[in-house]
Amino acid sequence: MTLLQRDGDVLIYGPWRAPVAGLELVEERFGTWRARGWAELRGLGLRLPMDEHYGQNRRTLREAAPEVRFASEWEAGAFPPAGWVPSGLALVFGVGLTAILAAVAAAWGGPWAGVGVVFAGVWGVARGRDRVTILPEGVRAGPAWAPTIGWERVRTVSIAPGVRRSSVLVEGEDFSAQAWVPTALLPALRGRLSRLGGLRAAGPPDGVDARYALWRLPALGVRWGALAGPVVFAVATDAPWRWIGMGLVLWSAQSLLQAAVEARATGWGAGSVLWLTALYALLVAAIGAAVSGG
User: Given the DSSP bridges, would you call strands 69-72 and 25-31 parallel, antiparallel or unpaired?
Assistant: First the structure.
């Protein structure tokens, strides 16, 4: 890959050359669809990819134009969620699908079944938007309501790199927190950890807690796969409600499994234990209503 070079007052990037004086702003951005980051050099018309050489290219820019501002979508500390689609689109799709499932569940098993599906579905949609936020006062990993762990209470920050997304596990003195960040933004995350918290991120974590943290994402996705099969059969048979009911039962069981994984991985910090308890109570209420015919 090409390195950005400086020759006096001129920046050189392969065959491209431009005067440093024309640089107005460096805007760092991330594209969810392709899971790639880049830096727009405003005023010069050049886009630098955030590849393995970007750290060195960034230092070259800093040295060449120290007065030029670097702006980014995560400059306030909140890194974007590491989803396959933009978070806004995922939110609309998840809420819409949950509403459809809740209506079907209510028609098949009564209002308690519909409430349980809404509760489980909305939680899954919300946790799919988990992100890592690194602030001057500490680090937060998880949903927007997760508490911030002060730097003085952070034991370790471990990163398990992946191809598209990477797991970040924050182990504090009171509880642990975990979320994913786009792999392309790991250099920016490591740099912010070092600057604000004086921490150096460790490698992939070990232990039972770490395994549960890595199982969170598969557990979140498996339940939708468990629902897909029965729904396909429901469309192709003369007894659709039977297969729909079977799919909802499987989906509910997988939701409880996912809740247990969440609770074991992150504990009380993001409300996972409370959610598991409430979801279990709703399931018992739905079963009781179905048995009693109410």
Answer: parallel
